[in-house]
């Protein structure tokens, strides 16, 4: 990511004065029970850490990364306040997923880099859960940050898909390897 884009994300998070909320992203709410309570999770592009801390509270050992040092600073404070350990890191995903152990949960909410789809699949343990939500062209104007129709099914259809949908400018999928 360019220095300018990173600075833009930092400025966005510096300008937000509401505290992050510890929660599973609402889009995955109907399949909350599919998320395990033990094992290892990786949250990529975790922002201010609300979902990462939710996973840690649920019982998982969590790694979470984002390119914005400001977001990660906030996320670390949230984990401290919530009294759960989370291994947060400032990582530019343009260089690929950070090296790490196979995971039981891989969460990617509101971040899209189709070049990472293969490595996301490969990072899942057998039985591991992928939960991904991206902007979509379905129900919205085309744009370079948006998934084309059927993109998640095409990339992740080999998983045992628990639930998925696309429309209203958003596409999401939850599946088990
Ligand atoms: C729309 S926010 C979503 C944050 C969080 N997942 C959530 O659900 O609130 C997108 C996030 O992607 C991060 N991001 C964008 N490009 C990135 C990159 N190349 N590497 C790592 N993080 C990136 C941004 O810093 C931002 O936190």
Explained architecture:
By secondary structure, the protein is α/β, with parallel strands linked by helices. It has a single domain, classed as Vaccinia Virus protein VP39 (Rossmann fold). 28% of the residues lie in helices and 28% in strands. The chain is built from five helices and seven strands. A seven-stranded mixed sheet has the order 3-2-1-4-5-7-6. The longest helix is centred in the middle third of the chain and has 14 residues. The two termini are 30 Å apart.
Assembly of the depicted chains: single chain
Structural class: alpha/beta
Bound small molecules, by name, code or SMILES, are: S-adenosylmethionine
Shape: globular
Unreliable segments of 5+ consecutive residues: none
Approximately how much beta-strand content do the residues carry? 25-35%
CATH class: Alpha Beta
* CATH evolutionary superfamily: Vaccinia Virus protein VP39
The number of helical segments is: 5
Average pLDDT number? 97
Query: What is the domain tally?
Result: 1
What are the key terms here?
Rossmann fold, 177 residues, alpha/beta, 7 strands, seven-stranded mixed sheet, binds S-adenosylmethionine
Record the SSE blueprint:
Layout: H1 3-15, E1 40-44, H2 50-58, E2 61-66, H3 69-82, E3 86-90, E4 103-109, H4 117-123, E5 124-135, H5 151-156, E6 160-167, E7 170-176
Parallel strand pairs: 1-2, 1-4, 2-3, 4-5
Antiparallel strand pairs: 5-7, 6-7
Helix pairs in contact: 2-3
The structure holds S-adenosylmethionine (SAM).
Short synopsis of the structure:
The chain has 177 residues and is an alpha/beta fold. It has 5 helices and 7 strands, in the order αβαβαββαβαββ.
């Amino acid at each position: 990511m360019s220095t300018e884009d990173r600075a833009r994300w930092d400025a966005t998070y510096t300008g937000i004065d509401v505290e992050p909320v510890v929660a599973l992203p609402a889009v995955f709410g109907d399949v909350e029970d599919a998320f395990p309570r033990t094992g290892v999770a990786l949250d990529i592009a975790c922002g201010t850490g609300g979902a990462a801390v939710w996973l840690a509270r649920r019982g998982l050992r969590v790694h979470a990364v984002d390119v914005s040092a400001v977001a990660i600073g906030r996320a670390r404070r949230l984990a401290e306040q919530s009294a759960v350990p989370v291994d947060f890191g400032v990582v530019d995903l343009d260089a690929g997923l950070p090296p790490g152990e196979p995971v039981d949960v891989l969460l990617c909410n509101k971040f899209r880099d189709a070049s990472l789809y293969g490595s996301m699949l490969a990072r899942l343990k057998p039985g591991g859960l992928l939960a991904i939500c991206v902007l979509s062209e379905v129900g919205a104007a085309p744009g370079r940050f948006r998934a084309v129709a059927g993109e998640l099914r095409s990339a992740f259809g080999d998983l045992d898909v628990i639930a998925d949908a696309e429309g209203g400018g958003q596409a999401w999928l939850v599946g088990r390897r």
